[in-house]
Amino acid sequence: MSGSQEGPQGSPAEHSGPSADSWSTADRPTPVYGPPPQFFQPVILPPQDPWPGPDGASSGGSAVRGALILAAVAGVVTIVFGLVLILRSPEEYESPARSALKVQALAPTVGPGGSGPLSQADATAPPPRPAEPAVPPMQPSTPKRLIIPRLGVNAPVESVGTDKHGAIETPSINDSNLVGWYRGGPTAGEAGPAVMLGHKDTTTRSAVFTRLHEIRNGDKIEVVRLDGTTAIFTVGGVEQANKQTFPTDRVYGPRDDAELRLITCGGTYNQTTGHYVDNIIVYALMTGTRPAAGKS
């Protein structure tokens, strides 16, 4: 989610001439050198009535003053209202760079998720792993559906690329139940971290990953693949990371096992940028496989 600056305004100082009776002989300065200065009596004009307006009243001087007063009052009210909003929710109006500065003591490892607030781990912390061991990776196959039993998620998956800024695209906002798989990385089930993204909400309703922050260590995630198999992942941990200090290596770094990353927005919604300031990131490891329903 810019303003313009107005320069200082002012009018030249008004100087009135001396009054007709202020130049008495006693008041005149005595010249030191040369001829005495010339003094002239000011011409005093008789008072004149203001120019009548259309309705016979005086011209719009008083109306202009009233309009200026009203404009000044409106400006003050607007400023006060804005300050009240900012003071009530300062984190919603601060810049992303300022938000990043608030990240202080990072956790040594990614937390298990579930109850309690989520935190961000130190950049050197490895991806969290569940207690269950990994199973061997499979051959690549396009993911078609994502299922998270605990959260009641059963969503189609579409492939997404990167935008003109190099950031991963998000799935279409027109379908709140759609998940995007980053096609520039591994597919779910092959070696390496498969990355999937979903919206937290839309302008009118909650979306597919609105409850992603509730997932926790040990929960299951299933990915139905085009080749007829289902990759079963077990959650190792969840973190809430500031977008300005996103843990790129932990999320996208190469891995020998088949792993999964689920990402959505989280934290405070910044009114200035129109975006949430954090990401919710789920780390999972493939711990099983099976044929998709209806396949032998």
Structural commentary:
The protein has 296 residues and is α+β, with helices and mostly antiparallel strands. It has a domain at 105-291: Sortase, Chain: A. Helices cover 13% and strands 25% of the residues. It is built from three helices and eight strands. It has helices at 61-88, 96-101, 248-252, and strands at residues 143-148, 153-160, 179-182, 192-198, 220-225, 229-242, 258-270, 275-291. It has an eight-stranded mixed barrel. A hairpin with a 4-residue loop joins strand 1 (143-148) and strand 2. It starts with 60 loop residues before the first helix and ends in a 5-residue tail after the last strand. Residues 1-60, 111-144 are annotated as: Disordered. Residues 32-53, 125-140 have a biased composition (Pro residues). It comes from Planotetraspora phitsanulokensis.
What would you call the quaternary organization?
Answer: single chain
Q: Provide the helix percentage.
A: 10-25%
How much is the average pLDDT? Answer: 80
The tally of strands reads 8
Q: How many helices?
A: 3
Q: Enter the CATH topology name of the domain at 105-291.
A: Sortase, Chain: A
Rg, alpha carbons: 36 Å
Residue stretches low in confidence (pLDDT < 50, at least 5 long) are 1-40, 96-103
Q: Pairing-aware structural class of the strands and helices?
A: alpha+beta
Largest sheet: 8 strands, mixed, barrel
Short key terms for the protein model shown above:
single chain; 296 residues; 8-stranded mixed β-barrel; 3 helices; 25% strand
